Amino acid sequence: MNFRKNLGWVAPTLLFTLTLATANDAKASGFAVFTHGASALGQGNAVTAHTQSPSTIFYNPALMNRLDGTRLELGTTALLVSREYEPAGTGTPTSNDSSFFPSSFYVTHKFSDAVSAGVGVFNPFGLGTEWSDSWDGKYIATKSKLTTYNLNPAVSWQVTKEFAVAAGLDVMFLDASLQRKLPPTVVGLPQQAGDVNSKFKGDGIGVGFNVGAAYDPIKDVTVGVSYRSPVTVSINGDGTFSNPNLPGGKIGVPGKSKVTLPQQLTAAVAYKGIERLTVEAGLRWEGWSSFDKLQIDLDNGNSTTTPRDWHDTWGFNVGGRYQYSDTVALLAGYVYGDAAAPGSTFDPSIPDANTHVFCLGTDLNFDRFNVAFSYAYQLYEDRTKSNTISGGLPSPPFSTANGTYRTDAHLLAVSLGYKF
């Protein structure tokens, strides 16, 4: 019974946990979070070509020039997620509920008719996966949480009356805490020793850039484009394996890896020619094909690679804002996003599927203060797992948790703003 002789299993285990850094809820596609402001969410994020909010730092910083004075905005979203698993054969149906709170802060300032600048802090990517310690897929995933924080300063230049451009820096901080079970035999313990608890904690930082443009080709029409570069994050962490029968009850193995967060491109057209009404429609492309594999290198010299083979995705959205009165605006929108994970590599640690989001909201303006509320219902299309992926472990006798996965989420967002 020598755990050290079984370190060959430690690499897949850490690899598994780092792969979990690619799962999330409330997503556009893959693991990109799309809720970064209550007003934007209420319009289905159809705010790439028009804005009334400093959250435009995320959606299209070229629109900052259309905000007067100095603007502050602070917001958060409650994500209430429900999942169900129905086994394809023998097994136990499982369900779980979880909640997450991605938040944002923005400040913008208009220095002149030509130049505006701002900074935003938000969570552009993230995950939340939580299953019981005894469910069919316990050797694939139990409890996992990952958060990214993007510090995004940006500057916008009004080149002409009709055309503006912007550029910004993305400083990405990543933090992860990820868990699963391991069969005792995998680490050299007898079956009667019971499962081994496996946990990974790691963090890292990466830097990228973003650019945007806004153009008014004719009266009442604006075309907006926003691009964010890929960001490679180097992750350093420790895998911890605990069981009363291990030497000292716990063994840790440091590991390193890299995750490339995908490039993103959004383009939209807004129309304001109907009194009190602004409508917008847009397309979104995300470069998930950069996530073709994941490699991990351990401090003991072991290294391993696993394929992911994700593909680029497309999505679209449409939304509207109706200024009911000077104080009240009514919002509505719809978002569709493709799944990035193919069936061959899909597993329950990555609840990725084609998704539909139905959004409603309101903006309330009180002189210098404004408050935005929105609600969205996110429906994932059913996803069926029918492969032999089992978290880096061999196929049977270890469960692959094949079956049907159903997920939906309720989103409640609020943002508070102030104008100086």
UniProtKB/TrEMBL annotation:
<keyword id="KW-0732">Signal</keyword>
<dbReference type="InterPro" id="IPR005017">
    <property type="entry name" value="OMPP1/FadL/TodX"/>
</dbReference>
<comment type="similarity">
    <text>Belongs to the OmpP1/FadL family.</text>
</comment>
<feature type="signal peptide">
    <location>
        <begin position="1"/>
        <end position="23"/>
    </location>
</feature>
<keyword id="KW-0812">Transmembrane</keyword>
<keyword id="KW-0998">Cell outer membrane</keyword>
<dbReference type="Pfam" id="PF03349">
    <property type="entry name" value="Toluene_X"/>
</dbReference>
<keyword id="KW-1134">Transmembrane beta strand</keyword>
<dbReference type="GO" id="GO:0009279">
    <property type="term" value="C:cell outer membrane"/>
</dbReference>
<protein>
    <submittedName>
        <fullName>Aromatic hydrocarbon degradation protein</fullName>
    </submittedName>
</protein>
<keyword id="KW-0472">Membrane</keyword>
<dbReference type="GO" id="GO:0015483">
    <property type="term" value="F:long-chain fatty acid transporting porin activity"/>
</dbReference>
